[in-house]
Amino acid sequence: MPRFCIFLGSREGRDPQYLADARRLGEALARRGHTLVYGGARIGMMGALADAVLEAGGEVIGVMPDHLVEREQAHRGLTQLIHVRNMHERKASMAAHADAFIMLPGGIGTLEEFFEAWTWHYLGLHDKPIGVLDSVGFYSPLLAFLDNTVEQGFLNARTRAELFDASTPLELLDMLEARLAR
Description:
The chain has helices at about 15-30, 45-55, 85-95, 110-120, 140-150, 155-160, 170-180; strands at about 5, 35-40, 60-65, 80-85, 100-105, 130-135, 165. By secondary structure, it is an alpha/beta fold. Strands 4-3-2-1-5-6-7 form a seven-stranded parallel sheet, sandwiched between helices. The longest helix has 16 residues, at about 15-30.
């Protein structure tokens, strides 16, 4: 059963489609027999995603540093909640438990976690597929920026091509599952 590490916001965002896509992805993960690995919060998009997986009968592993348990309002209904000492251990634990990575809309923490996982892939520290869910064009400017980094010679085309992106949860999940099956 593949485990998908998902980076996303602990806020809901302004467009209701962000939450809808998080829920849709969570339901699909559970229906397809995948496990969710995420930051462990019960609020915002993080909570919506975890709840959708759980309500559909799936398994959820949350990873949260002790100092954020109260601040991020840890989800107490998870299959497993792993407590770690700090953010570095959180990212390492999430990556160790994952077979693939997905980024949904979120803020600076989401971006930082995602780019570290992608950098680890680039450096050959793992060969796990990585994808971006571009809900209602949220990441379109970022994806255009990444394409520009290729055009300007700061990122090679192969590295950019290894980053999957799609505008719907099911399309992205299909892409990542196909990559896992190789």
